[in-house]
């Protein structure tokens, strides 16, 4: 292996959780990966150590100015015992695009993937195998130089933690109810919408809570300038089946370039289903609904893979999609992507990377 | 006193820095204030402890989703030895408005101010007295529940740290050069512009670095929707003297409601100088410049108090303001506000709060 990481084994391994009651992101494995960056020296001292608290100066940049980013991907164990990652180089590339926007130093993409592999290998026993479960991998970077004042940090930590997870939505593939947000804005042109940085998520909490209070699970965001183009859903990208075409927002700076989104588009194209990345107004969707042409809606993301949408609320318009049931395209995409991810289907796209 | 905080004295006090070479935000005093919040229990266990590292789970919300906020104010020591805070209740109120936007629990405003007073009292020897220096006070809140998933944290820490500071701009009251940003956006309607949350600052780093590379010290932001209304400057609010009127952006959600801004407006009104909070386009300013009516520009903020602007660059238009020199209104505002803050002038506005 090109990269050498020092390894300190955890002398007190924890009891593994019951796969039947796994939730999302509340349990962590025995180890974590840490690497430091110092201006002038670069990234150095990559190491695997027991999972445990970080000790940071209270003036660390991350606490005040949120110079931080994260990624998310999953490891699955196939029925024949192989450990599979799904398109991890795309997470590495997205990391560097986020880093560029946040003035965080670039990371070697091979190193990023090798660090994930090394850590997953050590904690491979933590990968649950029950349907819908996985080992969620969370690489993240925090700026930890201690000073007050708005400028880029000269010191960072790149950390990877692992969490055995159950399904993101407790109901599984049950269709969700979404609220079209017309008061709050997640991202706008010239902002950080396409970066996976903490600030975007903090900004979204309030709208999410107000939607929950109204009885909706998630938000469908509209663009910040015109408040009419549909963008994305919570932590996933949005797809609409209108007539015989699947449409999704284009990557023009305000939405996260989802890896699941990219995979959905590739699979649709391969299957010969019409798919378009184009700006779509919420009014077009309401009109399609009235005309009986709004057939399906679903969201795509690492956490839930494909999440069907059963109801979409925009102002006074309550749209029940496909009778509130999962549609055929969403089901087929879920089966295909989840099948490839877990090694049940042949990986004819070359998307999985085995941890050996 | 209504609030009781436990106090653990630092057994190893540090050497105080040389007031002549003080910079901004790089040195910290011997103590800090910490208070915890637990859902169901509320804020509890306010305590003053030796300044030192925080120990946090790597899955703490603040590292991933930037649920965090901060405030900033200063303590001065007057010539007759009194320790003065400047309008600290306004910081407490702004904290709660920020908290509301970020889904962080509210803090009792008296408690907020009493905690600052108790900490400043213990480290009062750290307040430098040289012209332009002060003790900078940084209250901040971080979400530290350990889980992955986008929802509000159930656990927080409210922390106050203190830093003896020199002038924010090393040159002191020397006029700065600003670049009018037309590519990046700091905040937009429906976003978090009026909240003092980390994400806003992380998002601004890139634009700031590009402006530095072009030879400008700071950015003048334009609004995110039309890209034409002037908003604010770096970490301060912007004022323009056009003809005989002083104009500044209104508080309509996208700019931070600066406490210095509020004080500037009050003083101008008191002195009978015309001041307007109104949306102003950059084109109006360029036109005023061409007509010889753009007399002065300055920025207002806790760090620099009043910072005159000598040059403003918008696309190809290079505006040299007041011959690149500090103007009479900026000078008078600086003298008045700084005079009140440091107890040199009588506080006829009732703005200072003494730490006894
Ligand atoms: C805002 C947002 N949009 C979309 C996605 C989907 O991206 P991916 O498919 O890479 O998980 C995510 C992350 O998971 C996200 O946080
Ligand atoms: C974005 C921004 N605008 C304006 C200000 C000025 O506010 P104040 O006068 O309360 O310091 C600050 C903070 O200091 C700020 O961060």
TrEMBL record, chains A, B:
Pathway: Amino-acid biosynthesis; L-valine biosynthesis; L-valine from pyruvate: step 4/4; Amino-acid biosynthesis; L-isoleucine biosynthesis; L-isoleucine from 2-oxobutanoate: step 4/4; Amino-acid biosynthesis; L-leucine biosynthesis; L-leucine from 3-methyl-2-oxobutanoate: step 4/4. It is an enzyme of class 2 (transferase). GO terms for molecular function: branched-chain-amino-acid transaminase activity. Belongs to the class-IV pyridoxal-phosphate-dependent aminotransferase family. This is Branched-chain-amino-acid aminotransferase. The modification N6-(pyridoxal phosphate)lysine is found at residue 196. Its EC number is 2.6.1.42. It comes from the Bacteria. Keywords: Amino-acid biosynthesis, Aminotransferase, Branched-chain amino acid biosynthesis, Pyridoxal phosphate, Transferase. It catalyses: L-valine + 2-oxoglutarate = 3-methyl-2-oxobutanoate + L-glutamate; L-leucine + 2-oxoglutarate = 4-methyl-2-oxopentanoate + L-glutamate; L-isoleucine + 2-oxoglutarate = (S)-3-methyl-2-oxopentanoate + L-glutamate. CDD domains: BCAT_beta_family (cd01557). NCBIfam families: ilvE_II, PRK13357.1. Gene3D superfamilies: 3.30.470.10, D-amino Acid Aminotransferase, subunit A, domain 2. Its cofactor is pyridoxal 5'-phosphate. InterPro entries: Aminotrans_IV, Aminotrans_IV_CS, Aminotransferase-like, B_amino_transII, BCAT-like_C, BCAT-like_N, BCAT_family. Residues 1-20 are annotated as: Disordered. One of its GO terms (biological process) is branched-chain amino acid biosynthetic process.
